[in-house]
Each structure stands twice: as C-alpha cells, then as structure tokens.
Please model this.
Amino acid sequence: MNVLKTWWRFAACLCVLRVLAGTNVAGAQDGAVAGRVTSTTGDPMPGANIVLLDTTYGDAASADGTYRIGTVPVGSYRIQASSVGFEAKIRQIDVVANETVHIDFVLEPIAVESREIVVTTTRRDVDAGNTAASISVLTADDLAVRNILALDDALRYVPGVQLTGNEVNIRGASGFSYNTGSRVLLLVDGMPMLSPDAERIPFDLIPVHQIERVEVFKGPGSALYGGGALGGIIHVITKTYPAKPETFVEAYGGAYQPARHAIWRRQWKGAKNPRPLGGVAINHARPLSPNTGLWTNLTYRYDASHLNMNSSRSLQGFSKFTWRTSPDSHVNILAGVNRKTSNTFIYWNGARDALNPGSINIGGPSGSSGTSDNRTQHVSLLPAYTNALSTSTLLQAKVRLFGIFIQPLDDEKKPKPLSKGTIGFRYGGEVQLDYEGAPGRYIIAGVSGDANLTNSSFIGDDAPRSQPEVAAFTQWEEEIGEVKITGGLRFDMYRVRQGETLSKISPRTSATIGMGPSWTVRLAYGEGFRAPSVLERFIESSDYLPIVSNPDLKPETSRSYEIGIRGRPSFGGAPLFTIDAALFLSQYRELVEPKFAPKERSFRFTNFTRARIRGGELELRARILRGRTSLHTGYTYLDAEDLETEESLAFRSTHLFKAGVALTVGPLESGVDLRLASAPEKVDSDFARFVRDAELSSPVQVVDVRIGSYWRGVRVTLHIRNALNYHYLSRPALLGSPRHALLQISTRI
Model:
C-alpha cells in the first residue's frame, strides 16, 4: 500500500479547496443582526434556528437565547426564528452598514410538531412536510433527553428501523451479515462515511453532543448518493458555533443489574455484581472573530458490559472550524480522532451459559474464539467549501479522509503489530452545483470520486488493496401549482480488480401533490445498488468463524415503489397531530448473504437471486397541553420473502412498534419509550452448525423510563433502560442488555 501517494493525493485536494476558498472578494461594508429568542413564559430557547431567508446566513441561539449574525451585506431581508414544537416567526428588517439591528423573538408553542423542520438528505434544503420520501428526524433535543451515547442508540427509537446487533436494518433491507457490509449509508454533513475495510457504519465517528439532527431516509438512495444507499440513508448534521462562548459539561454513571438467573450466575462470578458504565463529555464553542468560530469536544466512555469479556474504553476528540471567507461563502472543517480498546463478545457458549463467550473447534491447533480483543483508532478529516455564486446558483465542494487502524491485543492486553490487524484509508471528494432557473424549478448536478486502500490480515494475498469509484449525478425539480415533480439520475463506476469494472445507472423519480393546506400525497420510484466490499469478496479467516472468499460476488440491485400521505388533521381549526402513512414494495436481486458451504465446512458470502419486501408504515406525532406533552408512535409491517425458496427472509421481524411520551411540568421532565418487535419469522440455521443454540430467536419488548429536572442551568436525569428487565436476543447468540440505570448531570457555563 502506497500511503505516501495517498497523502499526496489528499494534499492536492486540500490545495484545490484552499484556492477556491481564497476567492474572497472584498465587498461593501456590512452590518449585523442580533437579539434574543424566548418562549411565551420568558424562558430562553437555546438551539432555536435564526436564518435570513433566501440566504446562507444564520445562527443558533445560545444557552441564554441570544444570537448574532455577523458580516451581513447591506439590504432588506426576511428573518425567521423557529424551533421544533413552536410556531415560526418571520420579520422584515433592513441592514445598515456598520450597525447592528436588534430583533427579539417570542415563540408560541403549537399543538403539533412544527412543519418548519428542514431536511437536507434529498441534496437540497426542503421542508420535511413536503418531501416525496419517508424521512424521520431526530433533533438534538431528542438525543439529549434520552442520554444517547452513540448514533446506533439513537436509531433504536426511529420507526421502521431495527438493529440486529449493531447492523442497521431499514424496512427489512438488511439482515445479519456478521458486521461486514452495510446496505445503509452514513452521511456526515453530506459526505458519505463508511469504513474502508468492511464498509461498516462508524457509529462513534461524531460526538452525539454536537449533532444538530439525524435524518433517516427510508428506501433506495443510490440515485442521490451511490452504492452504499441500497436500503436507506442516515444523515448526521453537525452544529455550528454560537454567538457567544459557551462550555457544556456532562457526566453520567450507572450499572447493569446482576444476572437474574442462577444458572448464568454459576457460570460467571461477575454476573453476581452490578457492572458499571459511565463517561464524561466536555464541549467548548466560541466565535474566534467576526468571521470565524469553532466547537471542540472531548469524550471519555467506559462500559463494563453485562457480558463476560465485553468491556470497552474510548477517548474521542473532535472539532469543527467555520470560516466565513466572504459574505457569500464559507469553509467548514471537521476533524477528529477516536481511540477505543475493547473486548468484543461475538457469540455465546449456549443459552444455558449466555454470559460467557463460546468457542468453535474447526480442526486447527486452537480453534476459534467467541470474543475479540482489539485497539481501534479512527482518524477523520472533512473540509467543505460553500459559495453562493449568485442569488440562483450555489457551489459546494467537499473532501473527506477517513482512516482506520485495528490492532489485535495479545494475552497481556498489549497491541500486536498492524500487520496482524487492519489498516485502511477511504478518501475522496465531490463538487455540486445547485441552480434555481425560475421560482419552483431547481437543477442539481455534480461529480464525485472515492477510493480506499486496505491492508488486512483477514484478506488473502491476491485480493486488491483498493476499490476506486467515480460518479456523476443530476437532479431536477419542478413545481406546478400544488404538484412538485422530482427526477434524479446517477452513474457510478467501480473498479473491483485490475482490468475489471462495474457500472450502474440509478434513476429515481417522485411527485408530491398538495391536497389543501394540511395534506400531501407522495409517489416515489427508485433503484438502488451496492457493490460488495473488499472484505465480503476476499475474506479468508477462521479466527471467529470459518469464512472463505468468493471473488465472483455480483453487485446487489433493488427497485422500490412507495405511495404515502402526510397531513395534519384539525378540529375546530386547531391541528391535533401529524400523521405520515406509507405503503411500500421493494424488489431485490443478487442479495449478498453469508451461507454455509458444506465442501469447505465454512461460510462464504454468496448471492441469492430474487427477494421481495412489501409492507406499510404509520407514524403519528403530537404536542398537547400547550407543548408540555409530546407523543410519538410508529408501526411498521413487513412481509419479506425469498422468491426462490418461497420462505421468509432471515432476521426480519414482521411487526415493529415504537412509542414515546414526554411530559414537562414546571422544572420536572419525564418520559417513557416503548420498543416492540416480533421474533423473526426465520433465523439462518447455518450459524447453529458451529454455535450452540444460535437458531434461537425472541421478540423485543423493551421499556425505557426517565425522570429529571432542569434548574438554574443544571439538568439532572435518571434513566432506567429496559425497566422491566426483559431478556431478549439482539442478534443470534447475543443477549440484549438487561435493566440498567444511569444518572446524568449536565450544565452549560
């Protein structure tokens, strides 16, 4: 692997970005806008969004509700203040040179979730109530009140999303692939981010405290973002720096309840005692000058786990630097490192010994183990440049670098050389141009390039060390009265090995039809694809399970159809709740799944030809009692079938139900979340050839409870996860977390 060449290529990309950023043209003298956002009770509203409409200027309110938008060109603007659950307010202002316009806002709570949430997963800022796709949004508040520790924790509360272990499954698109390959793409501020070795989702990449919102796009997104989006997209949007310096400190601590069953306690003495977990996070954000600012985060986490040999410690540092190079352009640079030392529990020693890892005798000198000890380090760097070339044209240029270093640990917990583990880099970039040719008509076009370099002890010597890809994409939107039509097309080309390439054209088309002021009907069709990862095609390992390579794997493809309706029923002129209902049908070919090969007595990733997933989804949200109580429910029905065998697809639950209620009374805050999933109709029995009781499955019936208070800038919350202490399997041969309690304390300085 030529690492030096990699860094030279990346340095060249940065130089191009810096040249673009240097096109700052001095303009006329500017002014500023500042003020404070409060509720009708006089309380400050931290995190409220303040934007100058039809421009790139904006800010988020700080802890005391104040905001400031600096370096604003002279002129007339419409300024909007909004927050989820409150009615947005718009005012007209005139900005004068060398003066600050002071505008305060008082926002009133509304009965239902605000429709002013803007989503960007469709490659353009769009009102969430007007998208021609099923998109669920988690706000920063949703993450904070539940003490979400990592992104995968947050996704458990999204309707239509199921996690099998730590593999994301959106509307049944994914099963269980032994943590290799993902049919769901992770975006961070619009940049695709999957690990270079196995194309997994790096859930710990971004500190949760610095996430503005999480958007979950349900359905094929290949026409938007390429191969990794076969089954959906998870888009993480990070926060910007506030108008005033602020420091946020959070600490939490708790423990897992001792094992309930005596048979498990006899097998492992550690199960008799509470198992601790805890962490601390420190965030500091500030403007550095009228045109620059940053936030930085340091997080430490420890988890002893409820399972033997499954503990972890991690230390993460992450920063975001913003530089407004001119009134019409800015540069954002995200950079972070993450170091984690972990014992990972892979599979149990049977249902009667569920807390201890098992082992497999495959005829070697030592067999294989159901646990893995590793030191893993992530390094990421994501510069992005945005320039409003005119009132109708926006240019975006983005670069990314993601490195992963995995070192196995020896018996003394010392790291082995990288040659015994994995080293990989994924790097690339894209340029996108947005053009508004006329009111209601938008054209988006761009090109992207991506490559990875991987060297791993898990792949054979004849495997390629890289899998470069290039793409071109375009999207067109047209609004005709109450109808909005969208069409998109993307061309991707991958080099799978020397002299061999794969290419795919992915179309997508959709339409939304306004049915009065409160209802919108949507229709959508899209195609998706995913090229197998290097690890799926060339893995050769017997460390944990016997797996052999299959270089002839074909890409997965899909077609998806959806019809949906979104609206706000009202009574007496007052909206009661928001409703989103959808029917969907997805057809898949050449799905990649691990299958047992009898001749080699090993697993191999193989294609099976045809599959179909159809179903429906219903989601309801409401805010009542003047915004003091919020309700959220979601139900998803899945019919997932292998059309060749006429059997159910493995690891898919037919019924998924999520519900949550939150109540605020004075300084007290409380909430309850319920997650239900039926047992999968089928579990792949091949796994049970090697692992005892791996054919077992169970429904999921988890209740989370929280109660806390916010007083004088300090928030204290007690969380009880899995409050009923229900035992379930999060995936085959892996017991889900039992009841555990967390005490969380946070404050802003």
Notes: The longest strand covers residues 602-624. The helical segments are 3-21, 140-145, 151-155, 222-225, 262-267, 534-538.
